UniProtKB/TrEMBL annotation:
<comment type="similarity">
    <text>Belongs to the trans-sulfuration enzymes family.</text>
</comment>
<dbReference type="InterPro" id="IPR006233">
    <property type="entry name" value="Cys_b_lyase_bac"/>
</dbReference>
<protein>
    <submittedName>
        <fullName>Cystathionine beta-lyase</fullName>
        <ecNumber>4.4.1.8</ecNumber>
    </submittedName>
</protein>
<dbReference type="InterPro" id="IPR015424">
    <property type="entry name" value="PyrdxlP-dep_Trfase"/>
</dbReference>
<keyword id="KW-0456">Lyase</keyword>
<dbReference type="InterPro" id="IPR015421">
    <property type="entry name" value="PyrdxlP-dep_Trfase_major"/>
</dbReference>
<keyword id="KW-0663">Pyridoxal phosphate</keyword>
<dbReference type="GO" id="GO:0016829">
    <property type="term" value="F:lyase activity"/>
</dbReference>
<comment type="pathway">
    <text>Amino-acid biosynthesis; L-methionine biosynthesis via de novo pathway; L-homocysteine from L-cystathionine: step 1/1.</text>
</comment>
<dbReference type="InterPro" id="IPR054542">
    <property type="entry name" value="Cys_met_metab_PP"/>
</dbReference>
<dbReference type="InterPro" id="IPR000277">
    <property type="entry name" value="Cys/Met-Metab_PyrdxlP-dep_enz"/>
</dbReference>
<dbReference type="Pfam" id="PF01053">
    <property type="entry name" value="Cys_Met_Meta_PP"/>
</dbReference>
<dbReference type="InterPro" id="IPR015422">
    <property type="entry name" value="PyrdxlP-dep_Trfase_small"/>
</dbReference>
């Protein structure tokens, strides 16, 4: 009988060859690995790509334990490590494209992913076409003879559209196109990438894997077909991480399930409360029907987390600033996935420079929340006080007209 996901998270990466009899694999720091005999050195050289101590950049037992754990959690054949999520994204793409190739990129991707395509990829002579996250089987109309990669992110950054990943993956595989997914929101436990046709699953482990807002870390888990190339190309591009950071990623995995469930419980309470606020046009929480692609979330995901957005009925930056500036428990900050609650605002016009085809179909300000592990009643009270400040400025504006 296969182990349950919760058990997996506790036992993953804890092979005795990494732990040496203790609960947690020790932090093994090394640049140079020394050998006592020529035969020993030659054996390490032969097996250097297969979790063997060879040279620090290839990894130590701490790295190997974390890589094992990520593969056990997400599936796939191997896990490459990177100093941040953006490095994981860019190096995964770079590992499989060359001048003259074409990639399809979801239009709701993480902003640095778009910047990478529009600068580095363009400079390399690799063309990018952006597509609507809800395109589904319509992706076939955008595929070109030189399309090498289809890159997905589900739910989408900021606007939270959930994609029909299996439909797109099926079409891609009929044409031998690589499917990459930014699976940071799913965190490897709420969305099983390889069961849905993904070839390379990428995470900003900075977020839920680490879970404490204190480490920059990226991962890319590949299927057997693409693992060797991803591993060697990433190694040639100098990608490696600190063993201390790998250790913290491994430690974060142990509490991933309980943290995600509490984030999800808190966020759904806040989302349902927001859905009944008179200031709110609609809520973009994947677990709610008001979120685009909700039907795919119900079909493919096993749980939620703390990240979602809601859209106000109007756009008045001065009032939005009043809402944000007085928060007690919500802080403004980039990233998400830690234990703390965060809030950021996006005016509709800001998407004009970030989107090619997936322009927002709303006129009000979008607020993105990451709901942390605080008492949810305190978070709701904080938002309610924010709306009081917001409404005071709205009324002031209306009185001046």
């Amino acid at each position: 009988m296969s182990e349950g996901k919760k058990t997996q998270l506790i036992t993953a990466g804890r092979d005795k060859k990494w732990t040496n009899g203790v609960v947690n694999p020790p932090v093994q720091r090394a640049s140079t690995v020394v050998f006592n005999t020529v035969a020993e050195k030659n054996q390490a050289t032969i097996h250097r790509a297969n979790k063997t101590l060879f040279y620090g950049r290839r990894g130590t037992n701490t790295h190997f334990a974390f890589q094992d754990a990520m593969v056990q959690v997400e599936g796939g054949a191997g896990c490459a490590l990177y100093p941040c999520g953006t490095a994981a994204i860019s190096n995964a793409i770079l590992s499989f494209v060359e001048t003259g190739d074409h990639i399809l990129m979801v239009d709701t991707c993480y902003e640095p992913t778009r910047d990478f395509c529009n600068t580095i990829m363009k400079k390399m002579g690799v063309d990018t076409t952006y597509f609507d996250p809800l395109i589904g089987e319509g992706i076939c109309d955008l595929i070109q003879p030189n399309t090498k990669v289809i890159f997905l992110e589900s739910p989408g950054s900021i606007t939270m559209e959930v994609m029909d990943v299996p439909a797109i993956a099926h079409i891609a595989h009929e044409r031998d196109i690589i499917v990459m997914l930014d699976n940071t929101w799913g965190a490897g436990v709420n969305f099983s990438p390889f069961e849905h046709g993904v070839d390379i699953s990428i995470q900003a482990a900075t977020k839920y894997i680490v879970g404490h807002s204190d480490v920059m870390l990226g991962t890319a888990v590949a299927s057997e077909k693409y693992w060797d190339q991803l591993r060697e190309q990433s190694y040639l591009m100098g990608q490696c991480v600190s063993p201390d950071d790998a250790y913290l990623g491994l430690r974060g995995i142990r509490t991933l399930d309980v943290r995600l469930r509490q984030h999800a419980q808190n966020s759904l309470k806040v989302a349902n409360w927001l859905a009944h606020r008179p200031e709110v046009d609609h809520v973009r929480h994947p677990e709610l029907e008001s979120c685009p692609g909700h039907e795919f979330f119900k079909r493919d995901f096993t749980g939620g987390n703390g990240l979602f957005s809601f859209v106000l009925k109007s756009s008045y930056p001065k009032a939005t600033t009043a809402l944000l500036d007085g928060m007690k428990h919500f802080s403004m900050g980039y990233s998400w996935g830690g234990f703390e609650s965060l809030i950021l605002a996006n005016e509709p016009k800001s998407f004009n420079s970030l989107r090619t085809v997936a322009h927002p179909n709303f006129d009000g300000t979008l607020i993105r929340l990451h709901i942390g592990l605080e008492d949810v009643e305190d978070l709701i009270a904080d938002l309610e006080a924010g709306f009081t400040r917001y409404n005071a400025l709205i009324l002031e504006k209306e009185a001046s007209l």
